[in-house]
Amino acid sequence: MTHLKPGDKAPKFKTTDEQGNPVSLSDFKGKKLVLFFYPADSTATCTVEACNLRDGYEALRNAGFELLGISPDSAKKHQGFIKKHSLPFPLLMDEALKIIKAYGVWGPKVTFGKAYDGLLRTSFIINGKGVIERVIFPVESKRHTEQILQGCVCF
Questions:
Q1: For 14-149, which CATH class?
Q2: C-alpha–C-alpha distance, residues 91 and 62, integer Å
Q3: Which residues are catalytic?
Q4: What is the pLDDT of residues 3-33, one digit of tens each?
């Protein structure tokens, strides 16, 4: 689990989205940002999560949120995932795991009894001043939009 908590400054980042457009935390100054980390494009649970966020996208936007997904996948995989599932939000590049590790979401996992290091599905709600307001862990893929909207002070 991440070492970051509500009240901490969100680690700054600079990367590109699936189309090669530059994206940084500072681009969201004055806006509420949901930065959601997920393990891999086109896997069952990640697809459920992404489609839940797609289906709740309008409600999230109406509540004042911007939305960015991030995983270690390539731009090509991100592009295919977005196209196949009509995702309305960008997916960011972090193949070198720099942002993932800065947010503390890389660590020990167990799947089917096998232990390994991997991405821990986690979301951060970051306010317009770059401060973490909430950390959502564990993420419930089937109701992630609801988790984000629960208890939000929306504007």
A1: alpha beta
A2: 20
A3: 46
A4: 899 999 999 999 999 999 999 999 999 999 9
